[in-house]
From TrEMBL:
Family matches, as PANTHER family: SUA5, THREONYLCARBAMOYL-AMP SYNTHASE
EC number in record: 2.7.7.87
Residues given in the record as ATP binding sites: R59, N63, T119, S145, S153, R196, Y232
Name of the molecule in the record: Threonylcarbamoyl-AMP synthase
GO biological process: regulation of translational fidelity; tRNA processing
Catalytic activity: L-threonine + hydrogencarbonate + ATP = L-threonylcarbamoyladenylate + diphosphate + H2O
EC category name: transferase
Keyword tRNA processing belongs to the record: yes
Domain YrdC-like: 14-200
PROSITE patterns: YRDC
Length: 316
């Protein structure tokens, strides 16, 4: 723990960005916004700093982290680059996409980041605050979502503060995250494989590569160690595909239904994704026994939303 230390609240102005960057270079933990969710960042080359991420999250150490970069020049020396990686990067970076690539031998990165795997997850986020911070820090930044392991992901600075308390040295407050769901993870270390659905669909990736993207199998624990079934869990039980809501349930609607909160009354999946974690946080705060959720169409961003919801509903 960090006896006597208060978490600094920083704004993304020049002073706040410089302070956040200098904390990162000093091996401290800084939560920062990306367009997907808030990340809990640390210098990816610093074993102590990366260990502090795992400690703050209470995260099993076999679950590897995504490393964030401001530009391709800093990213490429870490990995074995390929034509497929180039095509994907050109189409989707900066953006809500993570690539898993072979780790280049001699790359300067803590072994704790990759959890001993011979691959590494890398990402170039699009949110201006994230890009400004990464550029100012000048170091690769390892960052999982900035929440205690297994809890709902943070899409606002207040969510980070509520989940991690003073276990983080600073929180850079850039307001709500635009996408609101974690990045799509595409494995390119072997056959192109969708490791986690997210803001960019499997179809869009397949279109750029001119080939079908394989789907990960539920039992495939080696290629995506973090994809445990129970995840993104509110304290309440979760009931999916609710056509009607029972008395006493907290209700989360989609489309033209009456509910406590509605992800998108007009049935817009992009709006629903952006609201998902914030609304789960809000309903859970009222400590209901059950949160009942309307069916979400299983297409486009709906695939990623349903992935997170089924994990939230999984036995735990
Ligand atoms: O949108 C996001 O991706 C956010 C922001 C902060 O960038 N980050 C995020 O990180 O969601 P996290 O740690 O919650 O999820 C990272 C996922 C985990 O499921 C982990 O197992 C997987 O990436 N992963 C990391 N390195 C991997 C690797 N070498 N091979 C396969 N999966 C990997
Ligand atoms: Mg997470």
């Amino acid at each position: 723990s960090r006896p006597g230390r208060m978490t600094e609240r920083l704004l993304p102005d020049p002073t706040g960005l410089a302070r956040a960057a200098s904390l990162l270079r000093d091996g401290r933990l800084v939560a920062f916004p990306t367009e997907t969710v808030y990340g809990l960042g640390a210098d990816a080359r610093d074993d102590h700093a990366v260990a502090a991420i795992y400690a703050a999250k209470g995260r099993p150490s076999f679950n590897p982290l995504i490393v964030h970069f401001a530009d391709l020049d800093a990213l490429k020396p870490m990995v074995t680059w390929s034509d497929e990686a180039e095509a994907i990067a050109e189409s989707f970076w900066p953006g809500p996409l993570t690539l898993v690539l072979p780790l280049r031998e001699g790359a300067r990165v803590s072994k704790l980041v990759t959890a001993g795997l011979d691959t590494i997850a890398v990402r170039m986020p699009a949110a201006p605050v994230a890009r400004d911070l990464l550029r100012a820090a000048g170091v690769p930044v390892a960052a999982p979502s900035a929440n205690v392991s297994g809890q709902i992901s943070p899409t606002r600075a207040e969510h980070v503060a509520a989940s991690l308390g003073d276990r983080v040295d600073a929180i850079l407050d850039g307001g709500p995250c635009k996408v609101g769901l974690e990045s799509t993870i595409l494995g390119l270390a072997g056959r192109p494989t969708l490791l986690r659905p997210g803001g960019i669909t499997r179809e869009a990736l397949g279109h750029v590569l001119g080939r079908r993207i394989a789907e990960r199998h539920g039992s495939d624990t080696i290629s995506a160690p973090g994809q445990t079934r129970s995840h993104y869990a509110p304290r309440a039980a979760v009931r999916l595909n609710a056509i009607e809501f029972e008395p006493g349930e907290a209700s989360l609607g989609f489309g033209e239904v009456e509910a406590d909160l509605n992800l998108s009354p007009s049935g817009d999946l992009t709006e629903a994704a952006a609201n998902l974690f914030e609304y789960l946080h809000r309903l859970d705060a009222k400590a209901p026994k059950v949160i009942a959720i309307s069916p979400i169409p299983h297409l486009g961003l709906g695939v990623a939303i349903n992935d997170r919801l089924s994990r939230a509903a999984a036995d735990r």
